[in-house]
Design a protein that fits this description.
Blueprint (H helix, E strand, L loop, with lengths): L2 H27 L4 H11 L5 H13 L2 H14 L3 H28 L20 H20 L4 H21 L5 H25 L1
Length: 205
């Protein structure tokens, strides 16, 4: 990563942090956007379909901790040389930071899940969405790792990671386990962790 790119990423990261904190203040603590959240959830859940439920449930399982552990194990087995090992370390750093920050913020905000909309039973607090945060943060990290090997497909990798994150966010709303603002906060938090992870990699180099 060039110095100019590092400065740009740092500025973007600061903006994302400000947005994340602001969103937390107006949702996680005050409930200011509750009416907005309820209207969006009502719209997302307006169509009751077994196919949609199955897809949403499958995305939830794939985006769970077990799914990311499997990816980490795969990268670890490929880490036969220094380059692949550094990729594994970057991925592991991103995954661990996503988990740690997500749990810390959930305990801080203690936002209750949308129980009136829930289609499955899930425990724990709601803000920010762990699945959405991991899908964005870890997904962008995987896109970054893949783009280092094939720079021509860089845009495709990042586009694919964002599409997957959007689908995961939709699935959490369709299942009624997160408010829309939880999803948005998860995206912001994941992007922040991604930028932090690649910045740490740059410092190590």
């Amino acid at each position: 990563m060039k110095i100019r790119e590092r400065v740009k990423y740092r500025e973007i990261g600061m903006l994302l942090i400000v947005l994340f904190i602001a969103l937390g203040l107006v949702t996680g603590r005050t409930g200011y956007l509750d009416s907005f959240d309820k209207s969006i959830l009502g719209y997302v859940q307006s169509g009751d379909s077994k196919v949609a439920f199955t897809i949403a449930r499958s995305l939830g399982i794939a985006g769970s901790a077990a799914g990311y552990v499997l990816i980490g194990v795969y990268l670890l087995f490929k880490a036969a040389d220094r380059k692949n090992y550094l990729d594994f370390k970057l991925y592991a750093t991103s995954a661990l930071l996503n988990t740690a920050f997500n749990q810390a913020f959930k305990l801080f905000y203690e936002r209750v899940r949308p129980l009136d909309f829930s289609r499955i039973e899930v425990s724990g607090y709601s803000f920010p969405s762990g699945h959405s945060m991991a899908a964005m943060g870890v997904g962008l990290t995987l896109a970054y790792i893949a783009s280092k090997r094939n720079r021509r497909a860089k845009k495709k990798y990042y586009a694919a990671s964002i599409v997957v994150a959007l689908l995961v966010g939709w699935s959490r709303m369709y299942l009624g386990v997160h408010w829309p603002t939880d999803i948005l906060a998860g995206y912001l938090g994941g992007a922040i962790v991604f930028l932090l992870s690649i910045n740490m990699e740059f410092k190590k180099k």
